[in-house]
Amino acid sequence: MKKKIGVVLSGCGVYDGSEIHEAVFTLLAIDRYGAEALCMAPNAEFPVVNHLTGEATGATRNALVEGARIARGKIRDMGGVTAADLDAIVFPGGFGAAKNLCDFAVKGAEAEVLPEVARLLEEVIAAKKPVGAICIAPALVAAALGKNFAPQLTIGTDEGTAEAINRTGSSHIACPVTGIVVDEKNRIVSTPAYMLAGRISEAYEGIDKAVKAVIEMASK
After folding, report:
1. What's the half-sphere exposure (Cβ side, CA atoms, 13 Å) at 20?
2. Where are the alpha helices (DSSP H) in the chain?
3. Which of 16, 78, 175, 212 has its CA 20 to 30 Å from the CA of residue 43?
4. How many domains does the chain have?
5. Helix, strand, coil fractions of the chain, as percent rounded to 5
6. Which CATH number does the domain housing residue 92 bear?
7. Angle at 103 between CA 102 and CA 107, to 5 degrees
8. 107 Cβ contact partners less than 8 Å away, ≥ 6 residues apart
């Protein structure tokens, strides 16, 4: 039976939701390595950014509805997903991971995590199932798990973000764009992707390695 890998989306677009390249590369790698993706997103409204100008529009959009664009309509409200439905979970990046799923973008180390996200992450960790975190998403994992689990994570080499991650009780490890950091104890895999990537192929290489490692870990 194929391993079922949860993919948590936070909208559609790098500035206010999931980074589309990262989300698609995650889905591609899950399929390439013989697993099945279960896309999900919170059923909640979040502020919209005009991706042409980079400016806030003042409008809101529903993350579940927007995530359905990436998932081609096959997506679930994450409020109804439990760790029992999954063999592992992966969080693509994009500002939505740091603004919608939590408020790390505003509060840094003092960030609060959306309750349904924190609940599912804690369930997955308690069940000793693997977690993958891409780009800025390791900051979300740090905010949710830092105090109780002290995970090892990477967002690449950005010193300010790394410092904030360390202040959650987590440990940041510097990592090149195509590399991954594996926390064997907590079963967490992270990779920098567009926190460092200058080319789309660099983001792809790290994500492919990270997803492969998550699936291999889920099979042990």
Report:
1. 9
2. 20-32, 63-70, 95-99, 104-107, 115-126, 137-149, 159-167, 200-218
3. 212
4. 1
5. 45, 20, 35
6. 3.40.50.880
7. 140
8. none
Q: What value does the mean pLDDT take over residues 13-22?
A: 98
Q: Which residue, among 121, 137, 111, has the nearest Cα to 206 in the 3D structure?
A: 137
Distance (Å, whole) CA 49 – CA 87 = 33
| Cα angle, residue 103 at apex, residues 93 and 16 outer, rounded to 5° | 50
Token digits of residue 186: 């907590």
- The whole domain housing 186 covers 4-218
What is the per-residue pLDDT across 129-162, written as a single tens digit (0 to 9) for each? 999 999 999 999 999 999 999 999 999 999 999 9
Q: Which one of 12, 39, 102, 135 is the catalytic residue?
A: 135
Cα–Cα distance measured from residue 106 to residue 24, given in angstroms and rounded to the nearest whole number? 27
The answer to whether 12 is a known catalytic residue is no
